[in-house]
Amino acid sequence: QVQLVESGGGLVQAGGSLRLSCAASGLTFSVYSVGWFRQAPGKEREFVATITSRGVTITYADSVKGRFTISRDNAKNMAYLQMNSLKPEDTAVYYCATKLRGAADFGSWGQGTQVTVSS
Question: What angle do CA 31, 99, 102 make, to 5 degrees?
């Protein structure tokens, strides 16, 4: 059974930093792409960043480029999202998800971690 557990969220002032972690179990982590998504109150879930299984290809949403960094450690079954220069509009619940190579969609999701950025 695939389980993804996010951690590292919290309350931070604008301009601050947070590092989110995603712990994966129940899957061969090294063959899955990992994505980070977020959902703010009253808004649809949106893509933040993704990294392929071996970390070769990384993609960011325009809104976070230059501020967020996605990474992974396949030996530890972990993925990370380093968030710098945080803005109030980054406030959301952040989710990690996994997608098997060749699959159309992200099939497994974590429960999310709240990030709140105060102005």
Answer: 75
